[in-house]
């Protein structure tokens, strides 16, 4: 089974700092179409997202789950879907209560990726991670995924801070120019 692991904020949707309300959700142009294309070409689409806003007490895990349900509904209207959402509610220095901890599920830790690989029987050699930050790329590199840094979100700020296999303008370009090229 092949998969594309996607960061959420700055990769699929416009970065708005601690997105948790559906009314603040704006998809990056053509990201929905990119997800649909992955679905149509047999890729599992797995979202892996750090959610430090939970750790900081800005919103709850339930609010993130509700947002993910709404994202799924909106994608469904366009014939696209995400196979699973994984999120880390922890932060090593800015958390409150049980969320104040250095967790291996928080990227650049790899536990979210490992869970997706295990649950879906993913072949790492045939799979990708697409994200907009250093922590995304570092997590993917640790596991051995082909990594793609997109220039949306924080991508331009992180260009010289990590070593992705590819750098692309956005999710649509990454899917078209890298992922689907592997099919040919």
Overview of this protein structure:
- The chain is of the alpha/beta class and 184 residues long.
- It has one domain: Rossmann fold (3-Layer(aba) Sandwich), CATH 3.40.50.
- 33% of the residues lie in helices and 15% in strands.
- It is built from six helices and six strands, in the order βαβααβαβαββα.
- It has a six-stranded parallel β-sheet with strand order 3-2-1-4-5-6, with helices on both faces.
- Strand 1, helix 1 and strand 2 form a beta-alpha-beta unit.
- Helix 1 runs parallel beside helix 6.
- The longest helix has 17 residues.
- It is globular.
Give the N-to-C terminal Cα separation.
17 Å
* Contiguous runs where pLDDT drops below 50 for at least 5 residues: none
Q: Going across the major beta sheet, what is the strand order?
A: 3-2-1-4-5-6
Average pLDDT: 95
Principal-axis shape: globular
> How would you characterize the largest beta sheet?
6 strands, parallel
**SSE pattern, N- to C-terminal:** EHEHHEHEHEEH
Give the CATH superfamily: HAD superfamily/HAD-like
CATH class assignment: Alpha Beta
The third-level CATH topology is Rossmann fold
- Rg is 15 Å
Count of distinct structural domains: 1
**What is the strand content?**
15-25%
Number of strands: 6
The percentage helix is 25-40%
Give the oligomeric state: single chain
Computed structural class: alpha/beta
Brief synopsis:
By secondary structure, the chain is α/β, with parallel strands linked by helices. The chain has one domain: Rossmann fold. The chain has six helices and six strands, in the order βαβααβαβαββα.
